[in-house]
Amino acid sequence: VELEVNPRALSFGHTASITCLSKACASSDKQYIVSASESGEMCLWDVNDGRCIEFTKLACTHTGIQFYQFSVGNQREGRLLCYGHYPEILVVDATSLEVLYSLVSKISPDWISSMSIIRSHRTQEDTVVALSVTGILKVWIVTSEVSGMQDTEPIFEEESKPIYCQNCQSISFCAFTQRSLLVVCSKYWRVFDAGDYSLLCSGPSENGQAWTGGDFVSADKVIIWTENGQSYIHKLPTSCLPASDSFRNDVGKAVENLIPPVQHSLLDRTDKELLICPPVTRFFYGGREYFHKLLIQGDSSGRLNIWNISDTPNKQEGEEGLEMTTSISLQEAFDKLNPCPAGIIDQLSVIPNSKEPLKVTASVYIPEHGRLVCGREDGSIIIVPATQTAIVQLLQGEHMLRRGWPPHRTLRGHRNKVTCLLYPHQVSARYDQRYLISG
């Protein structure tokens, strides 16, 4: 997230790596997201124009944020439930980023690894279910009266139960039955009864892969995805279904006996390119004209994959896997553009007898000096004034005649392409401002 300055207001940005993101508004006319960094910073962003409209810094690191909305009379209030490297859940106002109160553990307080909000349509009470890093399930009851309060005593948990789930990745509540809870850990997934949190069934990881999340596709099916982008749809045994006569028949038996039969279909990426980090996968259920069940996956190469999940898959889909509905990447979108979008230093990267400019292989922006540093394929490094160069390349035409180009410097020392750049003073003020490091 970059620093942006406009004439009327200073918009803050993050100074450390981003740890989590969440939506921060549910209305159609306002589109806000909130981000948090490992240094405790939180920013509220207006999606429409990219401005940071609120900024705060806490003495703790968030690893997860969930948006929670409730009604007070005719008005709808928004809250952000934050958890991370601290032993409670902070409830933050979604517009001012002010900490209002906290959900605290009286028994065995520890960091929270994952959390879910169970909305109740029958009562005015909602339930926050969380799992600590030590495998203890925590339950808090949140009412509209509590949500409206501020600067109150901390709210303690209603229930604390060890369920022995280590390295939890996600918790999901079944919207179809209003009775089941899916807990996904790295090496296994488990379904619990949301009434008393008894174990109903369990399943191991596929081929030794690590699970990274999951959700309910229907009352009797769950979808679990892995860190390499594969997803599996599992059919639950009848003992997990509240409408079945055999519901809860297996409660109390050994976990090994609760593994359901292997009835699953596979959803896999068609492209097998190497990624710098695991893809992000989410299950989406909803729609306007009719309901959609979509699995949406984005990865570090800029690719977006979508699968439309049918309630009645045919036999071929079950054996061969579900066919992808949509797949598009940023690179494909750029390749279709005519004329091709200009790079910021293309004019300085002309290669004789070649249509393509010399590729930029590493870059770093130095805000203190307003300079952009670009390392290239041939080992050279170009330093340009960032704003002036962008204006000339993207907004004016004089540079095409090789006139009006801002001053630049070329550093030569590498014989092969530059793969990394570092401006040490940007990391710590103790380093000399004159030094740039390249590799």
Automatic annotation (TrEMBL):
Q: TM spans, by residue? A: none
- Tell me, what's a Pfam family for it? WD40
Q: Which InterPro entries match?
A: Quinoprotein_ADH-like_sf, WD40/YVTN_repeat-like_dom_sf, WD40_rpt, WDR72-like
Q: What Gene3D superfamilies does this protein map onto? A: YVTN repeat-like/Quinoprotein amine dehydrogenase (2.130.10.10)
Superkingdom as given in the UniProt entry: Eukaryota
Q: Which PANTHER family match?
A: RABCONNECTIN-3B, ISOFORM A (PTHR44099), WD REPEAT-CONTAINING PROTEIN 7 (PTHR44099:SF3)
* Record's protein name: WD repeat-containing protein 7-like protein
Q: Which organism is it from?
A: Equus caballus (Horse)
